[in-house]
Amino acid sequence: MNEKGMHQINVDEEVYAFLKQHAEPFKDTPNSVIRRFLPLKSGAVEIKDNNGGKVLPQFPQSVPNALAEILEVIILVKNQGLSRVEATHKVAELRGITTQAVIDKYCRQLGKRAYEVDDLLTTSNMDEFKTLLIERFPYHSKVIESVFEKIKK
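^ thats the sequence. predicted structure below, dont judge the formating
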């Protein structure tokens, strides 16, 4: 085992070519590429608030990564005061994925442009954002409702 709980592995040429094909240059590591394709939750450390409490909830395994990432961005923006861009970078870092992968979740999958997501993140539009998420992820409405109840107004 190497530093920080990392292990060294050997891969064949075909796997190496796959990793290179799916990597974003200067952003991805082999681990982040593999992690994107495996149904794993992030092994990264949690964000703590000033009192040592967890900022981001642990979502049930049944919650799709797309929904979890969107909710994490919302929590970081509304409860931690980060900009959407800062929150996107933080979620990507914590999950070991690219920022573009996170942006894809709240833009392409929700059919919105970044400026439209910024608009949804305003206090007056949070109900609209919640409705959009429930329409997109109807089987996870309880998780969505729970997160929105804990968002600072």
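The chain has a mean pLDDT of 83.
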